[in-house]
Amino acid sequence: MRQLRRMRPASAYIDQSQFDREMAAHFLSGWVGVGRSEDLPETGSFVQRSIAGEKLLLVRGPDQIRAFHNVCRHRGTQLCSQGRGHFVGSIQCSYHAWTWGLDGRLRAAPHFSEDDGFRLEDFPLHSPECAQWGGHLFVNLSKNPAPLEDGLGSVMKKFAPWPMENLRIGHTICYDVAANWKLIIQNYSECLHCPTVHPALARLSHYMTGDNEPATQFYLGGTMKLNDGVKTMTMSGESNRAIFSSLGEYDRRHIYYYALIPNMLLSLHPDYVVSYTLWPKAPNRTEIVCDFQFDPVEMRCPGFSAMDAVEFWDLTNRQDWRVSELSQLGMNSLSYMPGPYSIREGLLAAFDEIMIKALDGV
Amino acid sequence: MRQLRRMRPASAYIDQSQFDREMAAHFLSGWVGVGRSEDLPETGSFVQRSIAGEKLLLVRGPDQIRAFHNVCRHRGTQLCSQGRGHFVGSIQCSYHAWTWGLDGRLRAAPHFSEDDGFRLEDFPLHSPECAQWGGHLFVNLSKNPAPLEDGLGSVMKKFAPWPMENLRIGHTICYDVAANWKLIIQNYSECLHCPTVHPALARLSHYMTGDNEPATQFYLGGTMKLNDGVKTMTMSGESNRAIFSSLGEYDRRHIYYYALIPNMLLSLHPDYVVSYTLWPKAPNRTEIVCDFQFDPVEMRCPGFSAMDAVEFWDLTNRQDWRVSELSQLGMNSLSYMPGPYSIREGLLAAFDEIMIKALDGV
Amino acid sequence: MRQLRRMRPASAYIDQSQFDREMAAHFLSGWVGVGRSEDLPETGSFVQRSIAGEKLLLVRGPDQIRAFHNVCRHRGTQLCSQGRGHFVGSIQCSYHAWTWGLDGRLRAAPHFSEDDGFRLEDFPLHSPECAQWGGHLFVNLSKNPAPLEDGLGSVMKKFAPWPMENLRIGHTICYDVAANWKLIIQNYSECLHCPTVHPALARLSHYMTGDNEPATQFYLGGTMKLNDGVKTMTMSGESNRAIFSSLGEYDRRHIYYYALIPNMLLSLHPDYVVSYTLWPKAPNRTEIVCDFQFDPVEMRCPGFSAMDAVEFWDLTNRQDWRVSELSQLGMNSLSYMPGPYSIREGLLAAFDEIMIKALDGV
Fold first, then answer.
1. Is residue B324 helix, strand or coil?
2. Cβ A79–C330 below 8 Å, yes or no?
């Protein structure tokens, strides 16, 4: 079997130390998807995100959205316990009342004076880099990161026909999956399992129509062709939503499945978009937030419902999480030996390579 | 106190590393009791067991019972989540449909072809050794283990008068005990505690009548004499079950308590058998499955009930688990110093020796 | 900022190894507050305490109160599972009936005989040192500890005017706080946070009136002045309890806040005393028992209620636990950098020094 590549050893999926290194290599230093800019509707709006244990506040200031570490610069107190909310003009620590502007600059620190050598400008909130693309928000916790475009430029170009920035979330589902985050991505990156695992999906698209783009260190993905007579991915294959008018012929007949490394899955349909953010919590546990996005014009139409798409993908997702969880369980066995990848699992072997290389420097 | 042997240090009962070494020495390489063959009534029947974290499927094929690791040879997926059930002719992975016969041979692997160098015969299910004695099933996870008879031959001979293979389970109780597995065995191996802990038992048999056989590395055990007028171990000392006709005079008046190392306790009575399998889950936690076995002829009699034996042993077992749990708790103290064994705790000192020797090679 | 001291690194508050060393340095070898002697009202009364995982029985014998490790000297069995209760004349192990007097001397050990070299006098219960001051009980788990007076002599002298030994507990509250035990002490040792965190307290005493005594390795503390017209710390500032007649003018107008290292906080008021014992359970978890003590003469008066003091401190305590928990959370951030102490946080810097020095020898 010289020709066939093999899975990675179990340690890649079950060891805490491996997991910690991955968190450092990908989540504490890469561009991490953290949701949609519409989550922050107005000045002062904030959401809290936890990246590899780091609590971050995403705050819309009058000029731009910023990310702040949720930590007081005085005694290390967590500034905010809420998952989302609104800061009225400033951010104040509840312990000794240190107060910052929405731009992260310290405005007040009672009983600290310049006479003692204290300077307000020395204690801004720590603020990692923040970027946006197509309405998606990304944060990068490393110092001086390369721009988001450096890695995702070609994806941005490829997906330009979808009016992503204008879309709005119609439904959100949160999953708690007992599987390694990489198993989720690997499951997303092959459709060899579709006939066995996804009978509903198999009625809409044939798994042999899948076509992959060569992987890069920043993303991997491919397409599947809709069967004749199928308009989009819903339980019926039908939809009363208009197809995005900016799409060309090919894009109207294919679904795009792209994994943006490390934590964002992007599924583009002719009439809606699904984005997933993956939040690894342990080697064997990943939280997944799944946002369904639609054209706001359609959403205002009488009779609009997100549920035909939601129902289909909720069913399909749960099937995927289930087999991913079974893989996670099986890999704990001392009898596990890396098995062979078939020729239809090429993206998985490529993903393995990317993951191995990324840990070299950590 | 030169004459008296001492307990082992607390580390033997509370350290994770010691526990891990014991799992390797005894559970991942010895003959482990896994239940009764009657648990698998027909071809295709299976039960799942977890030995030191290893998930095993015990499957009755048309010819014999086999043990399989519950792991797909393709991507490591767990094949089966149920505790017991029935395979219809084959075992199929739910992820990519790899399929094995009940003999463990791979029959199908979609999209893998001989052209790529793939051969079905290279991917049988991993299958550890399985053995039976008296209707009890044993599995050995080591490669090329010595036969079960090598260790238990003399016990098999001694217990030949009991028609164990023909007996059937009349009742099962599962316990979750917050004590080290060795404390359970040590508690089982002395009756010095009986006057204090077991008033009901003390009415049926005097603790000073206990008589032990010299221990071997494979088992330890002894007998207790029933008081005059007591027929068997029940709450009343009475029973409407017939005594096994194959028993000699001595065996009709004594109860045998044997611990088969590492995980099976076997209590032989004149009219029934109780077997326990011990499933260590952590240094301070052991699950125990307790099966009460009776003559099927008796079980078909009107008025048969297992409950007189069950009630007695459930009470007695819970008393034993309670004091074992208290010992586990006490050993966590920094003040714990190994105390002396009395002359009536000789099997415990012998068991300690066996345990210490067994870890030498691990 | 040469002038301002800085917080300690996060490891001091979140690392398990640091926590373990602190338990060894302070709780397994210092004088640990374990409650009030009135908890043991009569001969045979006992309470159980757990110091850094060590289970201790505090038992009132006919002559004195003693502390015993809750461990049988035979097989290490825990002797007693109850939190409090009464031993009738002796302490007996439930496993093999070894029996000790209330003085800790072994009286009986069935089936152990002098012929085997066994001597009862070799197996007393392990008994760490116990001391009392003002009705407060202390235990020291080290061998041959220096007397309690060596460390607390000056505090004992300072607080002699309060009739603490005669006071009785009128109310007890138990808290479970998700913060490091040192953050609790640090929070207790400054009132810079009072205007922000404690509006009710700020109505009774101005935070700038605080005055600290120089810290020693055994305690740190200071006072706050009651506002004019305020009699004591209650929601209203009023009280129908008499002020302790033995107090001088200064003591009638000030509250004393003293932290006795490692685990006791003592708040002295003109008419009542509050003592807290801290029970660290993990780097990020501390149980706190809070006892309110009053003059028994007052307690027998019609109309006596502890609740005006209890209500005030329960509110104030919960505010303190809350910000301490937020500090604990914030320190987990990789972005945390030790911030500056203001000149009003001097006791915290002193406490840091004491903590650092104490670990030198461990």
1. helix
2. yes
pLDDT value, residue C4: 87
CA distance C143 to C140: 8
Instruction: Tell me the β-bridge partners of B69.
Output: B56
Q: Are the beta carbons of C71 and B327 separated by less than 8 Å?
A: no
A73 closest CB neighbour out of C193, C322, C339: C339
Gyration radius of chain C over CA positions = 22
Compute the average pLDDT of residues C307-336.
98
Q: Does C329 touch chain A (CB under 8 A)?
A: yes
How far apart CA A251 and CA B161 sit, in angstroms, is 78
Alpha-carbon distances of B161 from B165, B240, B241, B253, rounded to whole Å? 11, 20, 17, 14
Report CA torsion sign: A147, A150, A155, A159: positive
Q: Is C72 on the interface with B (CB under 8 A)?
A: yes
Q: What kind of fold does domain B31-132 have according to CATH? A: Rieske Iron-sulfur Protein (2.102.10)
- For the record, the structure tokens of A32 come out as 């991490």
Distance of CA B288 to the CA centre of its chain: 8
Count the neighbouring beta carbons within 10 Å of the beta carbon of residue B282: 12
Residue B138, Ramachandran bin (φ over 0: left; ψ between -120 and 50: alpha; else beta): beta
**Calpha distance B172→B293 (Å, rounded):** 9
Q: What is the pLDDT of residues A159-186, one digit of tens each?
A: 999 999 999 999 999 999 999 999 999 9
Nearest to C95 among B7, B197, B333 (CB): B197
Instruction: Round to whole Å and give the CA distance between C175 and C180.
Output: 13
pLDDT beneath 70, residues of chain A: 1-2
What DSSP assignment string belongs to B173-224?
EEEEESS-HHHHHHHHT--TTHHHH-HHHHTTB-GGG-EEEPP-SSEEEEEE
How far is Cα C140 from Cα C278, in angstroms, rounded to an integer? 15
Closest Cα in chain A to C329: A78
Interchain CB contact of C197 with A (< 8 Å): yes
* B97-129: burial string, b at 16+ Cβ within 10 Å, e else: bbebbbbbebeebbebeeeeebebeebebbbbb
Q: Of how many residues is chain A composed?
A: 362
A154-358 folds as Naphthalene 1,2-dioxygenase Alpha Subunit; Chain A, domain 1 (3.90.380)
Contacts C327 to A, Cβ<8 Å: 75-78, 95
Q: Can you spell out the DSSP letters for A246-281?
A: T--HHHHSEEEEEEETTTEEEEE-SS-EEEEEEEEE
C-alpha to C-alpha distance for A30 and A51, rounded to whole angstroms: 11
Residue tagged 């198993």 (tokens): A183
User: Does ipTM come in above 0.90?
Assistant: yes
C323/A110 CB distance under 8 A: no
Strands A99-101 and A90-92: antiparallel
pLDDT band at B120; cut points 50, 70, 90: very high
Torsion (CA) C98, C100, C106, C107 in degrees, nearest 10: -80
The vertex-A123 CA angle with A121 and A128, nearest 5°, equals 110
CB contact under 8 A, B69 and A333: yes
- Top CATH class, B153-359: alpha beta
Partner-chain contact C70 B333, CB within 8 Å: yes
The full set of domain ranges for chain C reads 31-132, 154-358
Residue whose pair of structure tokens reads 């001091």 in the numeric block: C12
Mean pLDDT value of segment B307-327: 98
Is the Cβ–Cβ distance between C50 and C280 less than 8 Å?
A: no
Question: What residue type is A181 in one-letter code?
Answer: W
Strands C65-69 and C54-60: what pairing? antiparallel
**Beta strands B45-51; B84-86: pairing state:** antiparallel
C76, B331: Cβ pair inside 8 Å?
A: yes
In this complex, which chains have at least 3 CB pairs below 8 Å with chain B?
A, C
Which residue is associated with the tokens 């690997």? A186
Q: What residues of chain B lie within 8 A of the CB of C97, using their CB?
A: 195-196
* Phi–psi pair at A217, nearest 5 degrees: -75, -10
